[in-house]
């Protein structure tokens, strides 16, 4: 049960194809098949089954793939921790961020961090909310920049930054805005902002027409073109607001306070902490408040 076999199996699970897994790993298709077959023999359970000309995971394979991802993530995290402990300024740092944070919050931070610590081995993965939290849970990311982490995730919040969600629209559309009937433009399913917008409309018991666009940039452009209004981070529309292409609409209960969270696993690496120290020196970022100790019965006695 070698690391190479695990990587091969995860590549097959991710791509759903022996050919695609081989292309990803730069090996032959027979090498992929042999590695997965050897892993199945080690486990004494079938991991894949033939479906037409392709393959798919068995129930056992689906379960095992999740463990394999975590094992590989832990191995990478261990390497990162060891290299960072030896010299934090030369260790690896695997960042993951939701799209708005990657577009609007991270670029200046990464540029200033790179200027100060040029030998840190930086990698950035950008994806929807569910994807970045899954990366952290699987130990595939050292630090995530996103909204509030899921309650069942073993994680440590290391820094916070204010983030206001506002309803915006083109000036002409904003002039006649009506919450129940004005069209809305939204991100794709799975986006944290999309989920927040849907919850906001449900809370106000309205169901206006909706147009789904495939990216943050498309939502901003669609709103500026008058296709509808959007609930979006103020960070993402600063230029459009200053130029007058969009205006903030006084919609009930807005703006919404949804701060950015910088979140690591329970044991952040030394290089991760080096980046967080840099983060806390940047404008608007603060350390999370310390938890208030519980008062015990003995504490309350004179």
TrEMBL record:
<keyword id="KW-0805">Transcription regulation</keyword>
<dbReference type="Pfam" id="PF00126">
    <property type="entry name" value="HTH_1"/>
</dbReference>
<keyword id="KW-0804">Transcription</keyword>
<feature type="domain" description="HTH lysR-type">
    <location>
        <begin position="1"/>
        <end position="58"/>
    </location>
</feature>
<dbReference type="InterPro" id="IPR036388">
    <property type="entry name" value="WH-like_DNA-bd_sf"/>
</dbReference>
<dbReference type="Pfam" id="PF03466">
    <property type="entry name" value="LysR_substrate"/>
</dbReference>
<keyword id="KW-0238">DNA-binding</keyword>
<dbReference type="InterPro" id="IPR000847">
    <property type="entry name" value="LysR_HTH_N"/>
</dbReference>
<dbReference type="InterPro" id="IPR036390">
    <property type="entry name" value="WH_DNA-bd_sf"/>
</dbReference>
<protein>
    <submittedName>
        <fullName>LysR substrate-binding domain-containing protein</fullName>
    </submittedName>
</protein>
<dbReference type="InterPro" id="IPR005119">
    <property type="entry name" value="LysR_subst-bd"/>
</dbReference>
<comment type="similarity">
    <text>Belongs to the LysR transcriptional regulatory family.</text>
</comment>
């Amino acid at each position: 049960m070698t690391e190479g076999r695990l990587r091969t199996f995860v590549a097959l699970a991710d791509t759903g194809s022996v050919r695609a897994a081989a292309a990803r790993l730069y090996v032959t298709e027979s090498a992929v098949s042999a590695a997965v077959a050897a892993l199945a023999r080690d486990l004494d359970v079938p991991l894949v089954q033939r479906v037409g000309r392709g393959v798919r995971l068995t129930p056992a394979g689906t379960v095992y793939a999740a463990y394999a991802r975590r094992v590989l993530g832990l191995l990478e995290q261990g390497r990162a921790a060891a290299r960072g402990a030896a010299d934090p300024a030369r260790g690896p740092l695997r960042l993951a961020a939701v799209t708005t944070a990657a577009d609007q919050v991270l670029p200046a931070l990464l540029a200033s961090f790179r200027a100060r610590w040029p030998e840190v081995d930086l990698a950035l993965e950008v994806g929807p909310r569910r994807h970045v939290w899954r990366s952290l849970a699987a130990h595939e990311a050292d630090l995530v920049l996103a909204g509030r982490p899921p309650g069942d995730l073993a994680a440590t919040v290391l820094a916070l930054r204010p983030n206001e969600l506002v309803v915006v629209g083109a000036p002409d559309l904003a002039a006649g805005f009506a919450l129940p009937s004005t069209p809305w433009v939204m991100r794709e399913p799975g986006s944290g902002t999309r989920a927040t917008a849907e919850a906001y409309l449900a809370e106000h018991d309205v169901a206006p027409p909706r147009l789904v666009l495939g990216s943050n940039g498309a939502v901003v452009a669609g709103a500026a073109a008058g296709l509808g209004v959007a609930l979006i981070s103020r960070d993402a529309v600063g230029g459009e607001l200053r130029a007058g292409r969009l205006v903030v609409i006084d919609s009930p209960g807005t703006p919404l306070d949804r701060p950015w969270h910088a979140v690591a696993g329970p044991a952040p690496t030394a290089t991760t902490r080096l980046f967080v120290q840099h983060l806390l020196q940047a404008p608007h970022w603060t350390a999370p408040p310390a938890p208030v100790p519980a008062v015990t019965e003995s504490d309350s006695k004179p």
